[in-house]
Structure prediction request, 509 residues.
Amino acid sequence: MVRIPWRNIVVTVLVVVVGLVWILPVYAEKSNSTLNFAWTKELETLDRYYNTAREGMIVSRHVYDDLVYRDPETWEYKPLLATSWKWIDPTTMELELRQGVVFHNGEKFDADDVVYTLNYVSDPENKVLVQRNVNWIKKAEKLGPYKVRIILHQPFPAALEYLAGNVPIYPNEYYAKVGPQGFGLKPVGTGPYKVVEVEQGKRIVFEKNTDYFKGSPKGQPSIDSIVQRTIPEMTTMVAELITGGLDWIYMVPTDQAEKLENVPTIKVVRAETMRIGFLQMDATGRTGDTPLKDVRVRRAICYAVDREAIARNLVGGQSRVVHAACYPSQFGCTDDLAKYDYDPDRAKKLLAEAGYPDGFEVDFYGYRDRPYGEAIVGYLREVGIKANMKWLKYSALRDATKADRVALVMNTWGSYGVNDISNITGQHFRMEYNDFARDQDVTDWLNEGDNSIDEAKRLEVYSKALKKIADQAYWLPLFTWVANYAFDEDLNFTPYPDAVPRFFLSSWK
Prediction:
């Protein structure tokens, strides 16, 4: 059965609506069994451990399987390559493995693959790029053909979260033979799709794994083949989406997403992601004797910014204000703490109490989404604070922060999709260069929570840390970011907060 798009009868209108100019392609019949999608970034390797791009995460979810699966709707952990798991003690976990699973190249999955993968990626000599994903693993041991033990360096309660998305399992024999370079071009996994063609940096062709194991929480894929193309220009992708060359694109700029909403054959979803924004303020005087050392000034800044208006009018979609230094669904996150609603009069009063009735001048840094920063500058100006914008590339901002030149900054963090506050709060309050508070109590509480497998204790100490961060206004959490998706109206597709599309859950109507 084929679908014949009727877009050609509205193309002239769409060109005007979208405001783009392109050469219209020849219209072709489009098979129900194929999904064509694109992204802008060139993915140099398909080896998940040697790229840091979200696009690499997308490939990983489809081609490989992890030991555990986290349901994207309920956040529940479900068996994937491991059928069960248990903590033996705070630094030892044992897992029973699924039998009857076969890699795309015919290798049988067993404990040897798990032990090889975990020991390889956790060895610093092998230089896995995102060390936080694997450096908690001390070693893995084989207890039987389908049973393994994972030994940790120290207690790490978020281990299951990492095993549920950041530690895909590779075939030991094939990987040992071809190494990261060969594997990056011809990857092999156990996942619902297999890679059948790679034109490096340009195109990847995936085919449905017809031997995918029954009982997987990922389900059996519906779409027979998926073709990914790398198209550097978003305007080109938008044009191809409208004319039928593509079925799905994401990270669409807001202005183009708004125009696409007027195209009757395309559905646009502005979905919330786990990325949150926040203002960090130099509470300790790293940059000198700054007014930000005074908690009244920091609280004034919190009251001065209308976060709700920015989230509603600039970010749009499903964006919402956040009050804690974490994404709301993450384990340990709570909003039972001090909140700062928009109140410019209260901000002015606090500034006067702190000795700045006429405000003060400060450099304001950032690296992405400048319009949001410009809005914040405007709100600060209304209460007397002159914030001089200095928008840098991320690497330059990081270097300036390390050099103690940044007193006020708008930052963001996406937690790598990890649903645990150890990957956000614990990353920013550990006395390192990105810790603007340097509060020993907060650091100690976070360390205690990050190194305990007692859930009740973790919740208790995380709550203490988050409440002090809010009370002392070390951060002003801003709002959630959104990812704009645009796709064929006949595609059943659901976006999730980790911003990783799961085409194995998609289908054509």
Summary: The first strand starts at residue 2 and ends at 3. Confidence is low (pLDDT under 50) at residues 1-29. The first helix runs from residue 11 to 18.
